[in-house]
Design a protein that fits this description.
heterodimer, A: mainly alpha, 10 helices, elongated, B: about 140 residues, mainly alpha, 2 domains, 8 helices, about 70% helix
Chain lengths: ~290, ~140
């Protein structure tokens, strides 16, 4: 079950990426100098646009390592930027020897490892966020089911029950429309491990419940705040549930449901911005031409 | 007469659960977000259709559970590494194939092949040694 589940939950793919990256780093370490230099140049471009914390130190490390490798391989023009030539990099002075070459290789591998680790962490964060959201959906759906069971067992009038479903559906529809608007600004080129799909499933459930809550609470509160007639306690009677969920008597409740269906958008957009941050981190550390 | 090996306690290995059962459990877990919604929807629908009280709840649970089970059975076909997320699988495959073309240390090569095995693919279709050298030469000295 573990194997089947880890692919479905996405953790398996992150693990595969990690293992593939370790192979890649080992291969890079043993590669010919020209390959190492070109890979280092590629990593320089990846680092320059990335949000990695210690980006400057990694770039410096790459410059030093490239200078050593380029000098030992007898190349310099077009490979090492003028500012990064061996004489310009502090603490580096040719001639370089075989141990320097090994250190330079190790440094390039370390930089690649740092980039790979950064990307793998972001992937794992996306997978975790998606699975956490799926767990939330299950719990929310179970609570909704309990509400349905409560209504059924307490013998709620069928028209009121149908109205409650109508409020729920209105909220869900408004929430999905809002999702369309929010999705216009999302990055779709980066794989999000099913997080967007989980959010899509979460939206109608949450917005429907918010609409139902709003349709229930606002009439109750308004009865308490603006009592009709004299101020005696007897006249501040809250409307019954049957009256609240009667669309024929209170058609305005449909509007309330639609308005309240939009309220979870703040929560949903926050979840979305968190995911967008991970995706933007992944995009910023992507190789410029080939992945 | 018992030897030392006979006297040593034999470690008991727990019998692995049948594959269909583990797959079904995984299918149920994967479809739980939809399944939990479906149970509620069916219960509500049965109540609206005219069944009252406990009977509506029980019928909803039963029908909802059947629907969930059907979804879980359908989901078992999508639990493999190549089907759970096709785009990532393809991305990983492309990367692995690109890596397998050029020479690498034996330890890295064995790791790569183990990885390919876990992904349910074979890298045996990679070029022969001569073909690999030809490709490497071609990459290092591109035709002008």
């Amino acid at each position: 079950m573990k194997n089947a589940l880890e692919w479905a939950l996405g953790y398996g793919y992150v693990r595969l990426w990690e293992r593939l990256h370790r192979v890649e780093e080992e291969k890079l370490f043993a590669g010919p100098p020209d390959e190492l230099i070109s890979e280092a140049a590629r990593d320089t471009l990846r680092l320059q646009g990335s949000n990695i914390d210690n980006r400057d130190q990694l770039l410096d490390q790459l410059q030093r390592a490239t200078s050593v490798l380029a000098f030992n391989a007898g190349v310099s023009a077009g490979v090492v930027p003028a500012s990064a030539s061996a004489s310009a990099v502090a603490g580096l002075a040719p001639p370089f020897h075989a141990p320097d070459d090994a250190i330079a290789r190790r440094m390039i591998r370390q930089v690649r490892h740092a980039i790979n680790e950064y990307r793998d962490e972001r992937r794992l964060a996306l997978v975790r966020a998606r699975n956490q959201l799926l767990r939330t959906i299950v719990l929310t759906a179970l609570v909704t089911y309990q509400l349905v069971v409560l209504a059924v067992l307490s013998g709620a009038p069928r028209p009121a029950f149908t109205s409650a479903i109508a409020f729920f559906l209105i909220g869900a529809t408004v929430g999905l429309f809002n999702r369309l608007y929010l999705d216009a600004s999302t990055e779709t080129a980066i794989e999000d491990y099913g997080l967007a799909a989980a959010r899509l499933l979460h939206t109608p459930l949450l917005c429907g419940l918010a609409a139902l809550g709003g349709a229930l609470i606002v009439p109750l509160l308004s009865a308490q705040i603006t009592p009709t007639g004299d101020s005696s306690a007897a006249t501040i009677a809250a409307p019954t549930l049957g009256a609240i969920f009667d669309i024929a008597q209170r058609p305005f409740t449909l509007v309330l449901a639609a308005v309240f269906g939009l309220t979870p958008s703040a929560l949903i957009s926050r979840l979305q911005s968190e995911a967008e941050k991970y995706k933007s981190d992944l995009k910023s550390s992507e190789a410029p031409a080939a992945h | 007469m018992t030897t030392e090996a006979d006297a040593a306690p034999v470690p008991r290995i727990a019998a692995p659960a049948p594959a269909w059962r583990t797959n079904l459990m995984a299918g149920l877990i994967v479809t739980s977000p939809i399944g939990s919604i479906v149970v509620g929807v069916i219960t509500g629908a049965i109540f609206i259709l005219g069944v009252d009280g406990v009977r509506a709840v029980l019928a909803g649970l039963l029908l909802g559970a059947v629907a969930w089970l059907v979804m879980a059975l359908a989901a078992t076909s999508f639990l493999g590494v190549d089907r759970a997320n096709r785009s990532i699988h393809k991305e990983l495959m492309t990367r692995m194939e690109a890596m397998a073309v050029s020479p690498m240390p034996p330890s890295a090569e064995s790791q790569l092949y183990a990885l390919a095995q876990e992904m349910g693919v074979s890298l045996s279709s990679t070029p022969s040694e001569e073909e690999r050298h030809r490709l490497i030469n071609q990459l290092q000295n591109p035709p002008r």
